[in-house]
Amino acid sequence: MNLERMMNAFKSRPGTKIDMNSTSRIVRSDGSITLVPSKYFIERTMIQPMRLYNELAKVTELVIIRAKQDNVLGETEFSVLKNVRLIELDGDHEFSGDSRKGLLETVAKAIL
């Protein structure tokens, strides 16, 4: 969830252009392109996801499914979460390839 780490991961992809003052052109892992306004990066620095997850867990059952080999978020510290069920599965950020089946099975079990 580290903005600098995320930006560095995107910068390593040919064709990506990060422009903090205008619109950035982000090349995704599947080759698609996402246009990101500078406002996104400003707002991203103000959001505290772990605090928000803890607040959400006060009003509903919260389950987080984490990809063990996440190539976007990398290692994320979840120990600060309270009353959150964390499920860790093998797979990359998109749960591509064979890991998609395990994700779908896990989601189905969690909602049933």
- What is the radius of gyration? 16 Å
Shape: globular
Stretches where pLDDT is under 50 for at least 5 consecutive residues are none
- SSE string, helices as H and strands as E: HEEHHEEH
Helical region count? Answer: 4
Largest sheet: 2 strands, antiparallel
Report the β-strand fraction as a percent range: 15-25%
**Average residue pLDDT:** 89
Amino-to-carboxy terminus distance:
29 Å
Structural class: alpha+beta
Q: Count the beta strands.
A: 4
Explain this structure to me?
This protein is α+β, with helices and mostly antiparallel strands and 112 residues long. It has helices at residues 3-11, 38-46, 49-57, 99-111; strands spanning 23-27, 33-37, 62-67, 84-89. The chain has a two-stranded antiparallel sheet with strand order 1-2. Strands 3-4 form a two-stranded parallel sheet.
